[in-house]
Structure formats: C-alpha cells, structure tokens
C-alpha cells in the first residue's frame, strides 16, 4: 500500500486529485486546515468508490503541525511515496498600494514556506539517502507565476514564482536519490478559490479572452498531477505542465 499526501484536499483541485489518486490505487491522506466536514466527505466519497483514504488536519504554514501530520502518516500501514503540494491561499483582489506586510507574509507562509516544509518531510521519507524507496512530488503552482496577476494578486503570483523555483532546485537536488519533483501551473479553473478573492464568477468573466474560450475543471488538473506521479512519467523531473487553456 502506497500513501499519497494531498494538501488542501477538501476542495477544488486538491479534492479532485485525492479522488483521482485513490482511483489509481493510492491510500490518500486528505489534508485540510479548517473544514473537517468537507474533508470527511472527500474520504467518505473515496471509500464509497472502493478506495482508501484518511483525513489529517494541519495548517501547513505551521512547522509543528506539518511534522505532526507526517508523523500521523508514518503510523499508517505503508510508505509515503507521493506528495501533492496543493494547499494555498489568496486574499481579495488588490493593487500593490493596498497590500500590507501582514497579508504578504500570510500568503508567503502558506504558499511558499508550507511547500518547503512538506517537501522537506517528504524527502526525509522518500529519498534513498534516508533509507526511502523513492517517490514523487508535484507542486501546484499557477499560471500567475508567468503572468504576474497585475491589479489583482501580485502577492499570490510572486508566491507561485517561488514555488516554481523550489520545484526546479529541489528536482536537481534529489534527482539521484529516487525522488522526482515536478510542477503544474493551472490557469482559470472552476474552484472555490475565486470566491476568496471576492469574485466567485471570475472564470466566466475572463474565459472569452482565453484561446480555448473556456475555463478548466479541477479534474483536468488532477489528471496531469496523477500522470506526473505515475511510472509513466518515470523520466520526468524538474518539468512543468501548464493547464491554462493556451493562456
């Protein structure tokens, strides 16, 4: 039994990814921060479909909570072989004149520090130099890392730029240790995150400017993540898949 940890798995891309990985035979650790009911619903749905999953609560920006989460996973009957760093936050759309240090640091602590902490703990369990059997990590970035999200989420975009650099550097650092590290960069995807930015209908507003003329679905991103984790991508590391409808 191989375990896959998906952070921020109670909604959106994380939920779709948890379901996809369970379908492919992983036991899925469904990480969440606040919404216990939603996380347990993801677990129940996976189990109803014949898969295996368990919920594990942790704020990934908190080092002690991250370590406790990985310790809880260690107690399950199987090695951690896959990590999907997906949990992320953004705040209301804002120009830079209105950004505060508090907001910027909150975004960076979850979207960057949280990814680093989870990668650190995963590598300790997966890499050959630590006695692991190998594994794969997928970091969920964003097309915003390339586009900058001007006038809306420059702080979020900058955090995802850092995620891209983490992905590249870590991939090179652990390539010889049996661990592959790749990234996906979703564009305008139909998820609840847009409501956090104050515009639930954002995808429908902008879809006409996309080359494919539509927003994406979380399941489309989940398929790419699952492929990068699979043996079908065994010679792929330090790479990115853009899922942005041509944007």
Structure, described:
The chain is an alpha/beta fold and 247 residues long. 44% of the residues lie in helices and 16% in strands. A seven-stranded parallel sheet has the order 3-2-1-4-5-6-7, with helices on both faces. Strand 4, helix 4 and strand 5 form a beta-alpha-beta unit. Helix 1 runs parallel beside helix 2. The radius of gyration is 17 Å and the shape is globular. It starts with a strand and ends with a strand. The model has no long low-confidence stretch (mean pLDDT 95).
Largest sheet: 7 strands, parallel
In terms of structural class, how would the helical and strand content be classed?
A: alpha/beta
| Tally of strands | 7
- Widest sheet, order of strands: 3-2-1-4-5-6-7
The radius of gyration is 17 Å
Principal-axis shape? globular
Cα separation of the termini = 38 Å
Mean pLDDT: 95
Q: Give me the strand/helix succession.
A: EHEHEHEHEHHEHHHE
Helix content: 40-55%
Estimated share of beta-strand residues: 15-25%
- What is the tally of helical segments? 9
